[in-house]
Write a structure and sequence with these properties.
Layout: H1 9-34, H2 40-49, H3 51-54, H4 58-64, H5 70-79, H6 93-105, E1 115-119, H7 126-136, E2 140-141, E3 145-146, E4 161-162, H8 165-173, E5 177-183, E6 186-191, H9 192-200, E7 205-208, H10 211-220, E8 225-230, H11 234-244, H12 249-263, E9 271-274, H13 278-289
Parallel strand pairs: 1-7, 1-8, 2-7, 3-4, 8-9
Antiparallel strand pairs: 3-6, 5-6
Bound molecules: adenosine-5'-diphosphate (ADP) and guanosine-5'-monophosphate (5GP).
């Protein structure tokens, strides 16, 4: 391969300016996709005449759409045979048609998001799965309020809103919870307004809550999809609770006793998924919301 062409300082600074303007344009287009101002159709059309948009990676375009995170974007690109670094300009006619079809079926600016509720016995891996989905951007994951004390690795506003009993009472009185329940001596509740806002924005929403709460959600919002996460075996569940190391022996024994009752509730749920691999569970949840 020959050496790259030598640019004069003026050419170099012009090229840098052009690249910066293109990046700015792509960022602006992505923001407008995120706010549902632009659909995938608009962007594919824009790319015909706008060089900066044409150079946007397909992955970036997909991940800017509401309801699409890394996992769903990967699955779609694999399905449509689009390579990981492909730019919009490099899409074939067939791929453009397939992308349009896919999004006419599934994501539409005006479509409200889907609500998935993930429950299962303590220690089965619910928060591990939920945090993976939050990171991938495939779901808007609700942050619950709780009266439980925070664990050393937990952050207020990220893992939970840690609030007092009095504040929890006040929120019940003002009807601020979509559902709430008591579990192992503490109370937990899902903030209603935040969940509704996310659904209205077209985001797919995940609630990671215990079984009573899941039943309450279904009775308020029958379109909610209830998913029960099961351990591969009882022994594996015990090992996971012990391995997590967040509870002393008494608390763990209490949680295991609750887990036995919780396992019996699986039949109420729309889907039962065995958590033998976090990656597989994540992919299944993404596909349930697609
Ligand atoms: P839950 O939120 O359901 O109480 P956690 O997400 O805290 O459960 O998981 C309990 C423990 O099990 C954690 O130490 C976590 O790393 C581990 N774990 C979760 N999923 C898996 C899996 N598929 N395989 C092995 N260990 C897992
Ligand atoms: P942990 O104390 O282990 O974080 O959570 C205990 C249980 O409370 C778990 O089963 C968890 O899913 C559930 N939980 C967390 N947030 C909520 C919530 O907002 N509502 C309900 N009903 N349960 C929740």
């Amino acid at each position: 391969m020959g050496a790259p062409p030598q640019l004069t300082p003026e050419q170099r600074s012009a090229a840098l300016l052009k690249a910066a303007a293109s990046r700015k344009r792509r960022a602006e287009v992505k923001n407008r996709i995120k706010s549902s101002e632009l659909t995938i159709d608009h962007v594919l059309e824009l790319a015909q005449n706008d060089e900066a948009v044409a150079k946007m990676r397909v992955r970036e375009l997909l991940e800017a759409l509401s309801g699409v995170g890394k996992v769903r974007a990967n699955a779609l690109m694999e399905k449509l045979n689009i390579s990981a670094t492909r730019r919009i300009a490099g899409l074939g006619r067939h791929q453009i048609k397939e992308l349009r079809n896919e999004f006419m079926k599934t994501t539409h600016a005006a479509r409200p998001g889907k609500l998935l509720v993930l429950s299962g016995p303590g220690g089965v891996g619910k928060s591990t799965v939920a945090s993976q989905l939050r990171k991938s951007g495939d779901f808007w994951v609700s942050v619950s309020a709780t009266t439980r004390a925070s664990r050393s690795n937990e952050l207020n506003g990220i893992d939970y809103y840690f609030i007092s009993d009095e504040e929890f009472d006040r929120r019940i009185k003002h009807d601020e919870f979509l559902e709430w329940a008591e579990f192992a001596g503490n109370r937990y509740g899902t903030p209603s307004a935040e969940v509704q806002d996310a659904l209205n924005r077209g985001e797919n929403v995940l609630l990671e809550i215990e079984i009573d709460g899941a039943k309450q959600v279904k009775s308020h919002l029958p379109a909610a999809v209830l998913v029960f996460l099961e351990p591969p075996s009882w022994e594996e569940l015990v090992a996971r609770l012990e391995g997590r190391g967040t509870d002393g022996p008494d608390r763990r024994a209490h949680r295991l006793q609750l887990a036995q009752e919780e396992l019996a509730a699986a039949s109420f749920f729309d889907h039962v998924i065995v958590n033998d691999s976090v990656e597989r569970v994540v992919a299944q949840l993404v596909s349930l919301a697609s």
